[in-house]
Structure formats: structure tokens, C-alpha cells
Amino acid sequence: MIQNSKTGAAFIAGGSLAGAGVSATVGGMGLAGGFGAVGIGTAPVVGAGAVAGAAVYGAFKAVAVGDAAAFGAMGIGAVGGAGFSSVVGGMGIVAPKIGLAFGIGTVPMASVGAVIGLAAYGFAKLLDESEVKETSAQLFERMEEKVLQMDYYNAAVIELGLFLSGEDLSQKFAALEVEDELQALKAEFASAKTEQETVTSNLQLPETWKCVKTLKGHTARVNAIAITPDGNTLVSGSNDRQINLWNLKTGKWFHCFSGQAEAVLSLAISTDGKQIASGCIDRKISTWQIDKKQFLRTFFYSNSPYSHNGFVNSVVFSPDGRFLASGSADKTIKIWGGYTGNLKLALSGHTDAVLSVAISPDSKILASGSVDKTIRLWDCTTWKPLEIFTQHLAAINIVVISPDGHTLISGSTDTTIKLWNLYTKELVCTLTGHSEAVLSVAVSPDGTILASSSHSTIKLWHIPTGNLIHTLAGCRPVAFTPDGKMLVSGGNGGTIKIWSLQGLNQLNLDSLLHQEWWEVLGVDPTTQPQDVKLAYFRLARQYHPDINRYASAKASMQLINKAYQQFQAQLKF
User: Which residues does the UniProt record annotate as the domain J (predicted)?
Assistant: First the structure.
């Protein structure tokens, strides 16, 4: 029994490896038909190889024991394949690298169905012999994970080529020769810049983001960050009820404002860089003098000891310094004197908690996002409502306005990001890619890059095209420095990450690995091995060069592999 199960596993593993070899040799492939066209990456080919291996094993067992059930499984699969062909219609497979193109009719699809049926029989026999109490799907997933960990599969991943503008730029990337190959690719991109300027600039191929520093000072999750206009000081607010000040150039902590009764939820810095405003769970807004490092005032209304009747989720200074706006769980937006702190008026209209407020660069429009799934625009001169956007399907967690004042950007619990034209009030596009609620967004000073974050992932987008250009292991909140060369984000366990925009010629895996393995994989040091493995597979799929067209994907994949190897090594001690 045990020997037979090992034989069956060998068939499946052999098929998987054959699939990886085919993918590496053939390169990018695709399916085309009446339904359109879709790409076929390495993972599907590996899976097909595993199925083929299981089918061979099924045939082997059927012949050996004379089991008629195998022929029944083939018949069911053939009928299913023919039915699929009749529904989908004509299809074809194309592989540009080797000049392959051929059609798939009903008969070939019936044959494919028969093979799949035989593979199912093979899986079933393998389960019977191994006495493993798991489903065929669970077994297949386990076998796929084993293949993914094998050195030759990792090598195949790193050797996969890029397809750019129809040209085959496939190269072999030996483990210790990545830098030379990246330089060669960079030279090719530079020579093609005249003809493909739009493509290369849109994809930001010559640059990548690298975590250069992790700040540790808070004892609980960081909810808000803000950066002074001169780019020298970073301010952070946390569940630990502290507001910390950091030298952004050195990463050194240099002051703490305390006194909040509860967690700090939001922060804002005045345009002149002199004041900090904080919004807290204790329903109060407080301001602090940065240069003198002293408390200024708490904002009160009427005879109340509070600023709002609910959590203060968002605060923002107007660019002209005239007022400060705050959004609260009490469903209102309040407008306060920027210098006096006196309440000017309260805006009502939202039917649930206001989670975010933003003001246009000319201080003429205020935008607010709410749990009620709406975004409202307000005229900052008359304070009358201008527009209501209702296209999101869940709470709007964050709204920002681009530096040029043309675009409103919203992030929602429905996992999408939407871009709106503030002049025409039209929805420009919807960005999809997050699998969790989008909790924070930031726009680079030149208005070309959008950073969005969830509980565990940061994504970078090219705004003019909507292309996803990079994925980072970090979390909310996010903010760009005034020069756009650094991105600041939240991290695990109360940490703050500083990301630097690097040229590919500066990308060095050894220097990147000054980070601990858990920082690279985006987990805590105490995370269970199975969860670390899942994090590794998730990152591997994100940075798979056949999926991620970013130029540094191959180097990033090697970094992820090395971090996982470090994790595996420590398990032996």
C-alpha cells in the first residue's frame, strides 16, 4: 500500500515538474475564442502537468487491476468535455514565443475531459492506497505546495521572461547574476524609450520601492501619520494614546505628546507646519505647537466638554489656513476656526458615521466619506451640498483630493478604489486588486502614483493608466513625503515602515536582507509555521514574473525565497 501511494505521488510530482519545464520553455501562452482571450501562466501549466501525471497513474492502475470504474470515469469526463465545448464554442491555444497556434474542437475537448476523468480516478486510487483522509482537492493542493517549494520550480519562476509591447525579452536569470541581467534589461528599455515612452513611464520600470527603515516606539497599532511640509518631521498617532514625533531623515524619535484619554484616530498638520491637530476616541480635538513642543488647546462647542458626540475619525486643515474640518461617528462634519478653534458650523446630511474628510488645494470644496456608503461634496464658501456619490457598495473609509485638485479618490470596505472628476462629477475609473477593505490612500506630490492600503497590503498604482505597479508588505495608514521619494506606512505591532524609491541599479538583495525574514514576508516573528507558509505562497503569487510585469519582480521573488529559507533554517534549531 505505502509503496503504491509513493508511486502515485511520483507520477503527480513528475507531471507537475514537466508542466513547469514546458512553461519555462514555451513562455507565455493564451486561450482565445468567442469569449475573448486569457493568459495562461506557469501555475495552470503546472496544475495541468499534475493532472496528466495523475491520469497516467490512473491508466496504470486500471490496466494492472482491470478496474472498469476507470472507463466509467473517462466516459463521464468525455461527455463533460464535449458539453463544455458546445457551450463555449471554438477555442485556440497560442504561444507567441515558439510561433504555436492551433484550434481546439469538440473532439479534442472530449479527449481532455476523458483525461481529467482518468486523473480523478488516479487521485481516488492514490487516496485509497495512502489511507489519507482528505479530499482530492486537498491532496492536489498539498502536492502543489510541495512542488512550489522545490528548487527547480523556484528556478523556473525566476527564469520566466517578460513580454513587453509584443517583444520577447526572455532572459535566463541565474541566482547570482540577477543584477547584471537587470542592468541589461534596463539598457534595452532605455534604447526603446523613444518608441515606447508611454509604456515605460507608465510601468515605472526603472524604479522600485524598498523598506529602508522600521520605526519602533509605539506599543500599539498606529492609526494615523502626517508629515510636515518641509519633509523633516513625521508625526504618528496610536492606540497607545501617544503622539510621537520622529526625525524623518534619521528615523530617530525625538518627542511625545501625551494627555489623550483614549486612542488617537486622526492627525493633521497645518499648512505652515507649526500645528498638529489630533482627533481621538475620547471625542476631543486637540492642537499642539510643534516647534515649542507644547499643548495649545482643545476644541469645545457650546457648553460641552467635548468636540463631538462620537469618535473623531478624521481632521484636516484647509490649505489656506482659515479653518479645520472634522468628521465624527456622530454623523456630522464640524468646521472650526483654524487659529481660534471656535466652532463655526456643523454640516449634517450623512446618515451614519463620517469616517474621512478632505479639502481641495484651493480650499473651495470639502469631501466627506461615510459608513452610509456615500461621498458628499460641500461648497466651502456657502457650505451647501454640491453632490452625492453613491457608487460604492460599502462604507467609505477614506477620501483624498489629488494635488492638482482635479480628482477625488475614495477607498471603501467593498475593496475598491474609485477616482472621480471633481469638475464633471463623473466616475473616471475603479481600481480593483485588494482582497480586503481599503483603509487608507495617498497621492504622490506629482499626482502620478496612488498608494492604497488594507490591513496587510499596500498597493501602488499609476494614476493616468490605472495600472498596478507594485505590491508591498505593509498596512494602513500611508503618506508620501513632500518630495515623493519616500512612502511612510504602518507596520506590524505598532511599527512604522519607511519605503524609499530606488533605481534598479541600487537594488541589492544582500542589502535588502538587512530586514528580518518576518518583515520581508509581512508576518509577526511568532506566527505559526503554516501561516508563514501561506504568507510566502501569497507573496510568491503576487511577485510571480509571469503575473507581475514590474521589472524588479524577479529580484523581489529571490528576496522572498531567501526570507523563507531563513525561516525554514530557524525551524531546525
Answer: 516-572
Cis upstream peptide for 361 (omega within 30°): no
Query: For the segment 15-44, what is each residue's pLDDT rounded down to a tens digit?
Result: 655 665 555 555 556 655 554 555 565 556
CATH superfamily name and code, 177-203+508-573: DnaJ domain (1.10.287.110)
Check residue 173 and give its pLDDT. 35
Instruction: Render 393-426 in DSSP notation, one character per residue.
Output: SS-EEEEEE-TTSSEEEEEETTS-EEEEETTT--
Q: Is the pLDDT of residue 229 over 90?
A: yes
Q: Please give the Cα distance from 304 to 76 (Å, whole number).
A: 74
Mean pLDDT of the chain: 76
Q: State the maximum Cα–Cα separation within the chain, in Å, rounded to a whole number.
A: 91
Q: Identity (one letter) of the amino acid at 324?
A: L
Is residue 306 predicted with pLDDT exceeding 50?
yes
Q: How far is CA 417 from CA 181, 387, 470, 560, in A?
A: 35, 19, 16, 27
Q: What is the DSSP letter of 9?
A: H
Pair 199, 164: CB distance under 8 Å: yes
pLDDT number for residue 286: 95
Task: Report yes or no on whether pTM surpasses 0.70.
Answer: no
* 354-359 vs 343-347, strand pairing mode: unpaired
Note whether 467 and 477 are within 8 A (CB).
Answer: no
Q: Is residue 417 a contact partner of residue 430, using CB atoms and an 8 Å limit?
A: yes
Contact assessment for residue 301 and residue 266, using Cβ atoms and an 8 Å cutoff: no
**In the 8-state DSSP scheme, what is residue 306?**
S
- Amino acid found at 323: F
3-state secondary structure of 139: helix
- Is the pLDDT score of 211 beyond 80? yes
Does residue 270 surpass a pLDDT of 50?
Answer: yes
Amino acid at 514: H
**What is the DSSP code (8-state) at residue 506?**
G
Block residue for cell numbers 479618490? 409
Q: How far is Cα 281 from Cα 108, in angstroms, rounded to an integer?
A: 64
Q: What is the pLDDT of residues 502-560, one digit of tens each?
A: 753 343 444 444 567 877 787 778 888 888 888 888 777 766 666 665 556 677 777 78
Domain ranges of the chain: 2-148, 177-203+508-573, 207-507
The CATH code of domain 207-507 reads: 2.130.10.10
What ranges make up the beta strands (E) of 176-320?
207-216, 222-227, 233-238, 243-247, 252-257, 264-269, 275-280, 285-289, 294-299, 312-317
334: closest CA among 289, 304, 361? 304
